[in-house]
Every structure is written in C-alpha cells, then in structure tokens.
Design goal:
This protein is mainly α. The protein has 16 helices and no strands. Mean pLDDT is about 80; it is low at about 310-333.
C-alpha cells in the first residue's frame, strides 16, 4: 500500500468514526430498520436513473450490498437502538478487520505478511483493553448484534474485492460499484421494517421529520442522515471500495480499527462519554497496530534501496521493495 492510499484509509476511518455520532442522532427519531432503508434509498434512486451498472458479476454486486449494506447496518443499528453506546459501537464493529483477514486467507488464498499479523494482534489487544473496561457496562445482546454487523462488513469487503478482481482493471469504476451497492438494501430493509416496526411507526417518523409539526429531535436526525449519506457512504465507502481495488484486503481492513479512536473521541466531546485512561491506552495500541505494517514496509524498502545501490538485495528491489508486491506473489491462483 502506498503512503497516499494509507492516508486515504486514515481519512475514511475518521469519516466513519464521526458517522457513529450521526447514526446516534438519526436513531433518536427514525426506527432503525427503516433508517437503513432510507439511508440507501436516498442514493439508490438517482443511481438507478443516472449511473450505468458496472460490468461486474451480479453475485458479487449483490453480495457486496447484502454484506456491507444489509447485514452490517441492520445489526449495527439494532445494537445501538438496543442500548449499545456510541463509542463502544465504533469499537466492537472493528472486529470486521480480523474477520476480513481470516475470510480472505481462507477463501481467497491471501497470505498476509508477518508484519500484518503482528499489527492486527497489537490493534486487537488495544480493542480488548477498551472492551475490558467498557464491556462490563453493556448487556450481551447489543454486543452480539454489533459483532454480527462486523461479520457482515467483512463479507461485504470480500465481495467488493472479488467483484473488482473478476471485472478486470478497466471494466468497473470503484465509485460506480459503491453506488450500485446501495441499490440492494432499500427494498429488503423496507420489507423488514414494515414487518418488525410497522407502518404506523414509519409514517409517524416521516410525518414529524420536517415542517411546522417537526419533532424536537428531527433537525439533528436529518443532519445525521445527511452526513451518513454524503460523508459516510459516498465519500467513505467510495474511497474504501477504491482502496480494496488497489490493495489486498489484508492491507486495507486493519485501517478500520482506527474508527473507534474517532468514534470514542467524538462521543466524548459531544455526548459526554468520557474516555478513561484504559481507553486512551487502548487507542494508542490500536493506532500503533495499524501503522506498524506500513512502518515495517518503509523500513524494508529503505534497506532494499540501500542494498540495490550496493548490488545487494536486487530480488527485493525487483518488486520495488514493497511487501505488498510480495504478498501478491504469495496469493494462491
């Protein structure tokens, strides 16, 4: 992964970390299942009218939409509506990173480097430090729901990468793929909302969303929905899809573990969810674990460049000294 892609991955993690605060605001007004349908419908309608469908296998496009758009958010929103705190939600959802690496290794033949495994282990240790402190205050059900959302995100990552890999480098725009992913969730989520939440609750939330009779929390809920659509989905998911096209899943996924650092910080600043020393130390471990593989690659690249200059290490220099090049060679056909 290049330094530019690493910075883009950090930017996505910040966008998604703040997104948990936006989701919290929206859930104060809209039913959770209907909110998922509404979130994606706002993008899906203009996509159907204006954007040509990318030439990718339909099964991977649907799989991307089901994993990333349906499973992730139905369980995440349900968990938050059931009482999962904003900061802790942003933390637990990052189990998607090791889920992605493990699924990619098992199903795609990707072989992450030792530095990647060590980085994930360090970041997971940070997550466990924070969870050990905060998890005692949360019941089991919300935690399990958010973990299922993390598994859905991981499945979506794999489907996204497979869709782009099988389409070829010139056949599919990552942004168009992300837009067409949003076409999948609205109808099944609307059906689920009608079944679970009922039409009365849906109509009541829409009727009090705007106008003179708007509920007090409606303005913040609508701003949260706008942020989720524009920044969380269009910007964040669009860049994430691009990064998955350029890089192995095991190189991109660990950056999602930076999300809880932003999520916990914004929850502290806005909602008063004050982080304790254990959470701060855990956040440091998360950041360090995510950055470790990239620092390791730069160090190896510098050594390779020095070796090439003296006639040593030419084999590594042949792949630019980039461990991701080695990772690609290790991958099964």
């Amino acid at each position: 992964m290049t330094r530019r892609d690493a910075l883009l991955a950090v930017l996505v993690s910040v966008c998604w970390g703040v997104n948990f605060l936006a989701i919290h605001a929206s859930l104060e007004h809209y039913p959770p299942m209907f909110l998922v349908a509404l979130r994606f419908a706002v993008i899906a309608v203009p996509t159907l009218l204006l954007v040509r469908r990318p030439q990718v296998p339909a099964r991977w496009l649907v799989g991307y939409g089901v994993g990333f758009g349906v499973l992730q958010f139905v369980f995440l929103y349900a968990g938050m509506a059931a009482g999962m705190p904003v900061g802790l939600s942003s933390l637990v959802l990052q189990a998607s990173a090791p889920f992605t690496v493990l699924i990619a290794a098992a199903c795609l033949g990707e072989r992450p480097s030792r530095a990647t495994w060590v980085g994930i282990a360090v970041a997971m240790a940070g997550l466990l430090v924070i969870a050990a402190y905060r998890g005692l205050t949360v019941s089991l059900l919300p935690t399990v729901l958010v973990l299922l959302g993390a598994l859905g995100w991981a499945l979506g990552n794999i489907a996204s990468r497979q869709a782009q890999a099988q389409a070829g480098p010139a056949s599919a725009s990552p942004f168009a793929l992300m837009l067409w992913m949003t076409v999948v969730p609205p109808l099944p989520m609307l059906a689920l909302s009608l079944l679970v939440e009922g039409p009365d609750r849906i109509l009541a939330s829409l009727g009090s969303a705007v106008g003179p009779g708007a509920a007090p929390e409606a303005a913040a809920a609508n701003l949260g929905l706008l942020y989720t659509v524009v920044v969380g989905t269009l910007v964040g998911s669009g860049l994430w899809t691009l990064l998955l096209r350029r890089n192995p899943s095991s190189a991109v996924a660990p950056f999602s573990m930076l999300v809880p650092v932003t999520g916990i910080t914004t929850a502290w600043l806005v909602l008063g969810e004050t982080p304790a020393l254990a959470e701060v130390l855990g956040g440091v471990l998360v950041v360090g674990g995510v950055l470790l593989p990239h620092a390791w690659r730069r160090r190896r690249g510098s050594r390779a460049a020095a070796g090439a200059g003296s006639g040593v290490g030419e084999d590594l220099g042949a792949v630019g000294g980039d461990e991701e090049g080695v990772l690609e060679l290790r991958r099964a056909p």
